[in-house]
Design goal:
Blueprint lengths: L17 H8 L6 H21 L4 E2 L12 H5 E8 L6 E11 L4 H12 L3 E2 L6 H8 L2
Parallel strand pairs: 1-4
Antiparallel strand pairs: 2-3
Length: 137
C-alpha cells in the first residue's frame, strides 16, 4: 500500500446512531457475547462508511466506548465512575493508585479493524494532559 502525503482520516468520534447508543446504554447491560456480536456489526457499518467516503485511515468511530476519557477506567484500577452533577454526563475520577485491569483492550479493537479492512488503522486514546485535567478532582 502506498501512503499519501496527506492521508485523510476522521478526527474525533464518529456520530453514534441510536442503535449504537442503545447498545452502550442498555439497562440491564447485554451479556458480553451478545454485546460484542452486535457491536462488531455496528463497527463493520462505520468502517464501510469511512471506506465509501474514501478515507485513507479508518477507526472504529470510538463506538465501543461509553466515553473517550472513561475508556482509561476500563483499562486500570484506581478510578471511580460517576456522573458529572453539572451536566449529567458520565464522569471518571482518580481515587487510588493506578494498576492494570484489562490490558490489551485497545489491541483487541485494532485486531478487529485489521480483520475487516485493508486500510490503515488508527486507534485513539486520550492524551495524558487531558486525563490530568478531567480525572483529578
Amino acid at each position: 500500500m502506498t501512503r499519501k502525503l496527506f492521508p485523510t482520516s476522521v478526527v474525533g468520534s464518529m456520530p453514534r446512531p441510536a442503535f449504537v447508543r442503545d447498545l452502550i446504554m442498555a439497562d440491564p447491560p447485554l451479556e458480553a457475547a451478545e454485546f460484542k456480536s452486535k457491536m462488531d456489526s455496528a463497527i463493520r457499518y462505520v468502517v464501510a462508511l469511512q471506506e465509501q467516503a474514501g478515507l485513507d485511515v479508518i477507526t472504529d468511530g470510538e463506538w465501543r466506548r461509553k466515553s473517550y476519557i472513561g475508556v482509561i477506567a476500563e483499562l486500570a484500577e484506581g478510578f471511580e465512575l460517576g456522573v458529572n452533577e453539572s451536566d449529567g454526563r458520565p464522569w471518571t475520577t482518580v481515587v487510588g493508585k493506578l494498576s492494570p485491569k484489562k490490558p490489551g483492550f485497545i489491541a483487541e479493537e485494532v485486531r478487529f479493524l485489521k480483520s475487516i479492512s485493508d486500510r490503515l488503522i488508527k486507534a485513539t486514546l486520550p492524551a495524558p494532559a487531558l486525563l490530568g485535567e478531567r480525572m483529578w478532582d
